[in-house]
Design brief:
- With 100 residues, the protein is an alpha+beta fold.
- Helix content is 45%, strand content 27%.
- Helix 2 crosses helix 3 and helix 3 packs across helix 4.
């Protein structure tokens, strides 16, 4: 694995390795959400969620699509079951997060 690939993997893990970001990941595991919906789910301010989403988007954890005047966010490379979320990086690295 090259240094660039290792750096991309590390940034990916960092992008959801923070308590508010984990709340965002768990909220997005149930489906597409707006920033307002994510702020409510994470019990934090919209500006904080926007910052976290920009970090997560840059690392390839989330994507956003415009829907009129709203941006709708969803997880990339993720499978959710009733008990866990499995996230997969483009390199093949996987992380499983329990939902309970």
């Amino acid at each position: 694995m090259t240094a660039a690939q290792l750096k991309a993997q590390a940034e990916w893990v960092f992008a959801f390795g923070e308590p508010t970001r984990l709340k965002i990941v768990r909220a997005l595991a149930t489906g597409v959400k707006t920033v307002t919906e994510l702020a409510k789910a994470a019990k934090t301010e919209i500006v904080n969620v926007s910052h976290h989403l920009s970090v997560m988007k840059a690392a390839g954890v989330v994507k956003c699509d415009r829907d009129g005047r709203f941006m709708r966010y969803s997880l990339l490379g993720t499978k959710a079951t009733a008990v866990a979320i499995e996230m997969t990086h483009e390199s093949g690295a996987k992380v499983t997060l329990p939902l309970n």
